[in-house]
Amino acid sequence: MTKVFIQTYGCQMNVADSDEMFAHLASRGAQYTENLDEADIALINTCTVRDHAEHRAVSFLGRLAAWKQEKPGRVIIFAGCAAQRLGKNLQKKYPFLDIISGAKEIEHFADTLDASGLFNAPGKDTHQLASGLTGYVTIMRGCNFACSYCIVPSVRGPVKCLPAEDILADAAQKAQAGAKEIMLLGQTVNAYQFENTSFADLLNQVSRLPGVERIRFTSPHPIYFTPEFLDAIKDNPKIARHVHLPVQSGSTKVLQEMKRGYTREIFLEKVRALKSCGFNISTDIIVGFPTETEDDFKETLSLVDEAEFFAAYCFKYSPRQGTPAAKMKLLPQNILEERLDILLNKVRGLSDAAYQAQVGSVQEVLLESENKGRASGNFWVKTRKSYPVGSVIKTSIEKADGTLLFARD
Ligand code: 5AD
Ligand code: SF4
């Protein structure tokens, strides 16, 4: 039996892509292992959104030289976004690398395996990963935006929405295998439209599948949260009340230069509309975009106050080759570091405050272990009694401690 070790970098799309690639390997006889030493195949699924992410993936590849030397029959597969960007250049630098499969080629991954001559012919049906409590379902690939700092459109290509029928079949299969929560994935997930099925239709349809208790989705783009969308989903309690909604900057001027397609005011309007439907909002912020002035940065700080985010992931701007922003003059690193520090200090207490605000509320909790689960708004909740994993309970909250709510159940 050949064994495959998988190292995944980056976003949840990549986690789902790794599952998909593993399925193809498993149907060719491979078994999953968490132990690199006993593996015959190493699959590295990579990210290139920031230089640091790409660097980590490539250094891991470098470290595999010795692993391969130990047993020359071992196979190394380098896949995903960094593989797409670096392409064939990698083969020159890492001649021991067997297969390169870029993010755009995921649909042809099975053909790539077969063309390599390194694997058996695919067999039947051994390939389903046991679903955890959350089943990841990719509903669209690629991105039609062209944010000036972002490399994703070039490594993942334009949007391609999967047929609604296939998505429902995938989600149903995962629910049947034990997933209670379905996470719909796409780079701009709420831009989904396939023939007559909109994103709101899809959410409502998935929520009606037997066994599905809750639906999450990531990552949406602010402009697709229209009043019509909110109207279509607001009465569906299975749609989790948490969205990760990247803002990137609080300055309208910088947002325009980033080509985000919205202003500060429009973003805040979306936040208010989502909050009025009970959504809890987290975000991504980039500091030190080349044209960001001290005043622009202050606008980001004030937006954080106004939006009352649940959490914010903050990144230093990283120039990506081939993107329009990469041609602009960089700000000095010390300014980026200073701004990141100030922002991190500001966002540090956000989650604690959001947790504290839940005391006295009633929450529906999906149990991820016997005594702990997640509320619809993504808060962690500790229960007094024990429940079967995967069950959903309704309870009031008696206190909060840091990022944990304590149930009165
Ligand atoms: N530099 C820094 N951060 C970036 N992101 C995307 N591109 C860059 C870049 N060039 C961040 C954005 C995005 C998250 C996934 O990564 O905040 O939402
Ligand atoms: Fe990148 Fe913008 Fe597309 Fe998000 S919406 S993947 S930031 S280009």
Low-confidence stretches: none
Strand percent estimate: 15-25%
The distinct ligands, each listed once, are: 5'-deoxyadenosine, iron/sulfur cluster
Number of DSSP E strands: 20
Query: What is the terminal separation in angstroms?
Result: 48 Å
The largest β sheet comes out as: 5 strands, parallel
- Cα-atom radius of gyration: 22 Å
Strand order across the largest sheet: 2-1-3-4-5
Could you describe the 3D structure shown?
This protein is an alpha/beta fold and 409 residues long. It contains 14 helices and 20 strands. The protein has helices at residues 12-26, 51-70, 81-86, 89-93, 109-116, 152-156, 164-176, 199-207, 227-233, 252-258, 264-276, 294-307, 333-347, 350-356; strands at residues 2-8, 30-32, 41-46, 75-80, 99-102, 134-138, 140-141, 160-161, 181-185, 193-194, 197-198, 214-218, 242-244, 280-287, 311-316, 362-367, 372-375, 380-382, 392-400, 405-407. The strands form 6 sheets. A 5-stranded parallel beta sheet has the order 2-1-3-4-5, with helices on both faces. Helix 8 (199-207) runs parallel beside helix 9 (227-233). The protein is globular, with a radius of gyration of 22 Å.
Question: Layout of SSEs?
Answer:
Layout: E1 2-8, H1 12-26, E2 30-32, E3 41-46, H2 51-70, E4 75-80, H3 81-86, H4 89-93, E5 99-102, H5 109-116, E6 134-138, E7 140-141, H6 152-156, E8 160-161, H7 164-176, E9 181-185, E10 193-194, E11 197-198, H8 199-207, E12 214-218, H9 227-233, E13 242-244, H10 252-258, H11 264-276, E14 280-287, H12 294-307, E15 311-316, H13 333-347, H14 350-356, E16 362-367, E17 372-375, E18 380-382, E19 392-400, E20 405-407
Parallel strand pairs: 1-2, 1-3, 3-4, 4-5, 6-9, 9-12, 13-14, 14-15, 18-20
Antiparallel strand pairs: 7-8, 10-11, 16-17, 16-19, 17-18, 19-20
The structure holds 5'-deoxyadenosine and iron/sulfur cluster (SF4).
